[in-house]
Amino acid sequence: MKSEIRFINDYDPCVYELWQEAFGDSEEEISFFLENCKNYKLLGCYCDGKLASMLFLVDCKVNSVDCKYIYAACTLEKYKKQGLMTDLLIKCREKYRHIALIPANENLVNFYKNRGFLTPMDLNYLVFEQSDEIKEYLTSGCSLDEPYLLYYSRGEI
Measured between alpha carbons, how far is 142 from 126 in angstroms, rounded to an integer? Predict the structure, then answer.
């Protein structure tokens, strides 16, 4: 299987297809996020020309340090367990010094820790320059009893 990682246009219909399969959101909910979120990039992994895995990188600050926040990280079901998300995370770590995310569940805590996101941090350290509605999108969807950030850094925080 040939794969390619690249930054992509968020209005590509494949983004909607992947997001809907992974999270069950409506086209209207996805469009609201894409049209109203500021300062982000979308990184995707294509397999045989099809968008198979993606994640958003939203500008934020963590403990006053400029950072990228990973949001809506997902992979099409038929491409799971092939290392695509790991490849996207490696690309992020190569490109950005500081990255944060909120793991959606306990299984993902271990997944991200095994990929270098080792530092747990309180959500109060996370700051977005976004509308309240978008901030809610960015921090919802976690099933942990007490959600928290996992942080990757190639330097001091």
Answer: 15
Q: Could you tell me how far CA 72 lies from the centroid of its own chain?
A: 5
Please state whether the predicted TM-score (pTM) of the whole model is above 0.85: yes
* Rounded Cα–Cα distance for residues 123 and 142 (Å): 12
Taking alpha carbons only, the member of 42, 55, 52 closest to residue 112 is 55
How do beta strands 40-47 and 119-121 pair? unpaired
Confidence at residue 107, expressed as pLDDT on a 0 to 100 scale = 92
Strands (E), 1-154: 3-7, 40-47, 50-62, 65-75, 98-101, 119-121, 126-127, 149-153
**Amino acid at position 151, single letter:** Y
Nearest of 20, 65, 74 to residue 42 by alpha carbon: 74
Q: What is the mean pLDDT of the chain?
A: 93
Helix axes 132-139, 27-36, angle to 10 degrees: 120
pLDDT (0 to 100) of residue 156:
59
Cβ burial, residue 93 (10 Å; 0-12/13-18/19+): middle
